[in-house]
Amino acid sequence: MIDTASQANGIEAVFGPGGQIDSVLQAGDWAFVAANWEYLLAGTVVTILLTITSLSLGFLAGFPAGAIEVYGSGRLSDAVSTFGVLLRGTPIVVLVVLFHFGLPLPRLGSIPWLEINLTAFLSATLALGLRSGAYQSQVFRGAIQSIDDGQLEAARSVGMSTRQSIRHVVFPQALRRSLPGFQNEFTIVLKDTSIAFAIGLAELLTRAENLYLQPGKGTAVMEVILTITAIYFVLTFATNRSLDALHDRYSIPGGSE
Amino acid sequence: MSLLRFENVSKSYGDEEVLHDVSFELDAGDVEVIVGPSGSGKSTLLRCVNRLTEIDDGAIYLDGEDVHAMDENALRRRVGMVFQDFNLFAHRTARGNVTLGLTEVLGLSEREATERAEQYLQRVGVADQAEAYPAELSGGQKQRVGIARALAMDPDLILFDEPTSALDPELVGEVLGVMRDLADDGMTMLAVTHEMGFARSVASRLTFLEDGRIVERGPPERLFEQPDHDRTREFLGGLTDLHR
After folding, report:
1. pLDDT class for A257, splitting at 50, 70, 90?
2. Do B70 and B78 touch, CB atoms closer than 8 A?
3. Which residue in A161, A169, A173 is closest to B73 by CB distance?
4. CB–CB of A188/B133 below 8 Å?
5. Domains plus CATH for chain A?
6. Is A254 left (phi over 0), alpha (psi -120 to 50) or beta?
7. Distance from CA of residue B229 to its chain's centroid?
8. Contacts for A163 with CB less than 8 Å, ≥ 6 apart
9. How many CA atoms lie less than 13 Å away from A143 in the CB half-sphere?
10. Maximal C-alpha separation, chain B
């Protein structure tokens, strides 16, 4: 049986009688946030690192998976697409918890300043990365299929092998067409790193909670949460702008993309 | 020995026979123009030469060698192709379109390839567009880049699959002009085109294909003036009226 009474007491201990969150913004609570800037900065770094490792894993898994779904032999392509369906059909929180507690991951140490448990970081990367790979594969698959057959035919007709033609003609164009979808995925993964909260990885959201759960700091919930909200927003906004610039930089002159 | 020889070539897509027992041969330096109604098998015939389409029966010989016994990439290195829809590599400049085959297939260095590409772009009159991307070129310029791309590989033979059909009328001339120059330089060409002026003045032979069969083949003047078959007269007459 779950002891709901003592749970409620715990909430009251933090948030005061009635368990109400104090929604009044107070100068003292902002000062509390400011005093912990380095703690939140470290959390921001963890969030960024987790986004980068997850997206990279997602790309490394998703690009070949997309290519296999288009060019692969029946059995391999079926296996890849089944795996993708499973990953896309499972809630990300479930995946993170499943990977963290279900996979026999090695016990790794932690990084001092960042205060992260590397095992948790690894399981979060695997869950977010493979899930992103499952979505990225669909972005790449669609982009590859959108390249006109005449492109491949022209490459083959100058004597290039299928492999050379795909590598030098189809992929460079497909990658450019994937950028908008990839950009979307970037934003999703960045925001979804907050799900690592479920396994206690010290990223932004976990740290936010660690701050306002300190004895007597229950009044700072809003201030802390608004601060990390702003940080998430700045991060997504900045990456989107950078990817827009990248898109402009690599778009084909005169083309519609 | 003939450069290209079709020997009783047949090809079907499912129940539909698109080429029926086609035989003809072509010498080096010949310009063969193939005409025929839509669906007569003209494009299929071209595509069989470089094995973009595989034949069901018969044999095709390039310089005496059975093309089916050849490595298809080696074959395609020797047979250029120019497409109706240009099919220029959209992500590469005009020059980049020409250099890709040179570096990847012929193994030229980037510098050698660039020099050679410049030379061929010059030859088809688009040297000033070397840095432009396909989407920035006019149809006529695109097709000339397409010709330069095929030509730079130094092929034995170039296949032209309706090279002017996708062009605005005022741009047709510049592409035909390049093809005419190639013919004058002795390039062997097998072209599907309905440009009767070109066929009349440039082709060494004209082939009329219908329902996958060669109805009639011969010097263009004879097919235009005194064809053996009424069907040939009817078809060529119609085309000539259209293009008058």
Report:
1. very low
2. no
3. A161
4. no
5. 4-250 (1.10.3720.10)
6. left
7. 26
8. none
9. 28
10. 55
Structure tokens at B166: 């996708």
Nearest to B87 among A153, A253, A256 (CB): A153
Distance between CA atoms of A29 and A47, rounded to whole angstroms? 24
Q: Do A254 and B134 touch (CB under 8 A)?
A: yes
In three-state secondary structure terms, A158 is: coil
Enumerate the residues of chain A whose CB falls inside 8 A of the CB of residue B135: 252-256
Residue bearing tokens 């030229």: B108
Name the 3-class secondary structure at A185: helix
Confidence (pLDDT) at A20: 57
CA distance A15 to B161: 78
Tell me the pLDDT tens digit for each residue of A196-229: 999 999 999 999 999 999 998 888 899 999 999 9
What distance in Å separates the CA atoms of residue B7 and residue B61, rounded to the nearest whole number?
Answer: 8
* pLDDT per residue as tens digits for the range A27-40: 888 999 999 999 99
For chain B, domains (ranges, CATH) are 18-87+156-243 (3.40.50.300)
A251 touches chain B (CB under 8 A): no
Full-model pTM: 0.86
Token digits of residue A148: 């006109």
B contacts of A170 (beta carbons < 8 Å): none
Determine whether the interchain pair B80/A158 forms a contact, defined as Cβ–Cβ distance below 8 Å. yes
